[in-house]
Fold this protein.
Amino acid sequence: MKHQIRTAALALLIVTGTATANDSPDHFDGIPSNSLPQALEHLEAYNTQLASLLAQPMDVATMAEIHQLTYTLENALERMQEALEQLSETLESVHKDSEYAAADTLPGHAHQYLEDARPWTE
């Protein structure tokens, strides 16, 4: 029973630490994703780590590891979201160029779109 209470208390500390992460000295920055390819690599690697941790008994140490790796996953997803927003804007330029028959700008925007989309399709 003491073990269950201790486990519950530690889990509560982890959750409380998450809620006040900006004020907590135990806040993790995670590994930054400085580019889309790096974000995709982090997503793959840290999803693999998460799956591995989920196969273990779910004790406080495992939950703490999961908590820590989520910061790197959040950084990766943030970079991916930024890249998708940029990709969407570039595609919108291609769309408008084609709609208004802007032959002078369409090829440049289309090439930029294809270049920006490449990491998503490789």
